[in-house]
């Protein structure tokens, strides 16, 4: 999975597959499959970004669950 910030929404259809992915424009980073992110970046619809950092409280809570 990869992260992107979408500037214009669109729909990506995988070749020879019944699955499609519709993404909307948002200022927050969104996580999508890598092929979707690569396609959106190549079409100028999005910018690839690094994953957002988790807050310390979220990290501690997930450690306590494990």
Summarize the SSE layout with pairings:
Layout: E1 2-6, E2 10-13, E3 20-23, E4 30-32, H1 34-42, E5 46-49, H2 56-65
Antiparallel strand pairs: 1-4, 1-5, 2-3
Strand content: 25-35%
The description of the largest β-sheet is: 3 strands, antiparallel
Number of helices: 2
Please report the total strand number as a whole number.
Answer: 5
Helix content: 25-40%
Given helix and strand content, the structural type is alpha+beta
Overall, the morphology is globular
The chain-level mean pLDDT equals 89
Instruction: Give the assembly state of these chains.
Output: single chain
Can you summarize this structure?
With 66 residues, the chain is an alpha+beta fold. 29% of the residues lie in helices and 30% in strands.
Any overview of this molecule?
This protein is of the alpha+beta class and 66 residues long. It is built from 2 helices and 5 strands. The protein is globular and about 40 Å long. The mean pLDDT is 89. The strands form 2 sheets. A 3-stranded antiparallel β-sheet has the order 4-1-5, with helices on one face. A two-stranded antiparallel sheet has the order 2-3. The protein is 29% helix and 30% strand.
């Amino acid at each position: 999975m990869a992260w992107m910030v979408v500037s214009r929404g669109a729909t990506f259809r995988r070749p020879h597959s019944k699955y499609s992915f519709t993404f909307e424009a948002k200022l927050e980073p969104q996580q999508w499959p890598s092929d979707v992110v690569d396609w959106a970046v190549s079409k100028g619809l999005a910018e690839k970004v690094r994953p957002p950092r988790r807050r310390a409280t979220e990290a501690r809570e997930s450690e306590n669950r494990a």
